[in-house]
Design brief:
heterodimer; A: FAD/NAD(P)-binding domain; seven-stranded mixed beta sheet; five-stranded parallel beta sheet; 19 strands; 33% helix; globular; B: alpha+beta; two-stranded antiparallel sheet; 5 helices; 30% strand
């Protein structure tokens, strides 16, 4: 049996839940497939307060924003959420296959919004397969979702927002943080996060990397060393740091498998942290009826993911004929929020990436016109 | 440097420090927020509208020290935990420092807590004058320490746990 859906949202994180709520508010019926056993995406473990403005729930903690978005979605008669529902493929005839409840189900959506988010990058160094070496996201899940104290003493690799925030949360969980090392010459995350852990006594050392990890059957220590201006290890600068856990927070990359499989035009854009689907102003990919929002189309803050989700949701509902005029106004408001969030120095990188992406999209479209 | 180690420089701090005359009038908020990021909950936190993030959300906050009465409502509302209140008129020798705190256990009024500098260095044991919860939703505590006047612009954190009783 094939299940019909007006709008299918793939991924129940901040972008997906906001996309669903936006489309449903205009009257569209939305089905959300979330592969985890609870919706909310990464918000379920974000115990820190969010930045941004009131419109993106700034000042509220991620866990509370997640709870609010999920409660609103569950209360909305136009939204159905399937949990433990992993989307496996998007096929040429428009059929989307999903593994749910140990069964293979088929969905025929009229519109699809891909909000699959991102995955963590890993780092290559000798000993990186020792037990005790984690992605920062896993450690955050263990502490903040499962309530497990994940370590005694941690070395954090990466001073982006994730590395800084997870270090802080580890300390809140009573774990000793030996330090944060960062290969770049500068701290990449928000400096207020850096100052917060620094004044709790955690050293942050830029221009350092992991040379190797060692231990007998499990991690016991890490050798770090300095990097030169060309990111090469400087011999003789090695230092030993004793720790039972090494946390890698070395960046995220968009989870785009479904976009590739659906045949969306993709491009590698460094500023967006990997291959991303090219999207237009409605966040529609080059495959008609498939939209992409949130980290899947470029790694950014959750505040922006929520607004992108909203924009895609309004656009998808509009294309189905729901409240065209209101949809246009709401889309414009969401677009304005995005430009506001991205207008400062912190958004410069994303803006540069998006400009590249839209240039590529325009040239592809131009190419097609000539053919 | 702040961008390399997370510690604001003396110049950074000076750029957001209220003038001497303002300190002489009592409690005042100081936003140690030096980076242009999209964030403005502090502006909504202040009932007196003393904090402005203008012309757009990416600006760093400006506190109008003549309007600010040092109430401290902004402390727990700042997502970056970057706002502090200093009252140099507390006594002849001591100043009050109100700071945001998110570790357990929270020190209790009357206990002594170890004060930390911006680099996490231990500056001494200081009486906890007050500890106020930000409530169920906010969850950030605002803790007030009485510190020697010369440390009013140095103490910015509390070492979690190991509090001592009494003065």
């Amino acid at each position: 049996m094939i299940r019909e859906a007006e709008i299918l949202v793939i991924g129940g994180g901040p972008a997906g839940l906001c996309a669903a709520a936006a489309a449903a508010s205009l009257g569209a019926r939305v089905l959300v497939c979330e592969r985890d056993y609870v919706p909310g995406g990464q918000l379920v473990k974000q115990t820190h307060k969010f930045f941004g403005s009131e419109k993106q729930y700034a000042g509220d903690r991620g866990i509370h924003i997640g709870r609010l978005l999920v409660e609103n979605a569950l209360a909305d008669p136009n939204i159905e959420i399937l949990t433990e529902a992993t989307v496996l493929g998007i096929y040429e005839d428009g059929i989307v296959t999903v593994l749910h409840d140990n069964r293979h189900i088929k969905i025929r959506p009229q519109k699809t919004i891909v909000t699959t988010g991102a995955s963590e990058k890993f780092l290559a160094f000798p000993g990186n397969d020792l037990p005790g070496i984690y992605g920062a996201g896993a450690v955050q899940t263990l502490m903040n979702v499962a309530g497990v104290r994940p370590a005694e003493r941690v070395l954090m690799v990466g001073a982006g927002n994730i590395g800084l925030i997870v270090s802080y949360q580890l300390m809140q969980a009573g774990v000793e943080v030996a330090g944060v090392i960062e290969a770049a010459p500068k701290i990449g995350g928000y400096l207020v996060h850096a100052s917060k852990i620094r004044r709790a006594g955690v050293p942050i050392r830029t221009g350092y990397t992991v040379k190797e990890a060692h231990g007998n059957g499990k991690l016991e220590g890490v050798t770090i060393c300095k990097l030169d201006d060309n990111w090469q290890q400087i011999p003789g600068t090695e230092e030993e740091i004793a720790c039972d856990t090494l946390c890698l927070a070395v960046g995220l990359t968009p989870l785009t498998e479904l976009c590739w499989q659906a045949g969306c035009e993709m491009a590698f854009i460094r500023e967006l942290s990997g291959h991303v689907p090219l999207v237009d102003e409605n966040l529609e990919t080059t495959v008609s009826g498939i939209y992409a929002a949130g980290d899947v189309s470029g790694i950014e803050e959750a505040s922006s993911a929520m607004v992108e989700g909203r924009l895609a949701g309004f656009a998808a509902a509009e294309s189905l004929g729901y409240e065209a005029e209101r949809a246009r106004e709401l889309k414009a408001a969401a677009a304005a929020e995005l430009s506001e969030l991205r207008s400062g120095p912190a958004g410069a990188r994303i803006l540069a990436g998006l400009t590249k992406a839209s240039g590529l999209l325009a040239s592809k479209k131009g190419g097609q016109a000539v053919c | 440097m702040l961008i390399q180690n997370g510690i604001p420089t003396a110049e950074d701090i000076l750029s957001v420090t209220p003038p001497k005359e303002r300190f002489a009038k009592g409690a005042v908020a100081i936003a140690e927020c030096f980076q242009k990021i999209p964030c403005n909950p502090c502006t909504k936190a202040c009932v007196k509208k003393a904090i402005r993030v203008e012309p757009d959300i990416n600006e760093t906050p400006r506190i109008d020290f003549d309007v600010c009465n040092g109430c401290g409502a902004c402390i727990a509302r700042c997502p970056g935990l970057a706002i502090f209140v200093v009252d140099k008129t507390y006594s002849d020798t001591e100043a009050l420092v109100k700071l945001p705190f998110e570790f357990l256990p929270v020190p209790k009024e009357g206990q002594l807590a170890c004060g930390l500098s911006r680099s996490g260095e231990e500056l001494g044991w200081f009486p906890v004058v007050k500890a106020v919860s930000g409530g169920k939703k906010n969850m950030t505590w605002t803790v007030t320490l009485a510190v020697p006047k010369e440390l009013a612009m140095e103490v910015r954190n509390i070492k979690a746990g190991g509090y001592q009783d009494g003065r």
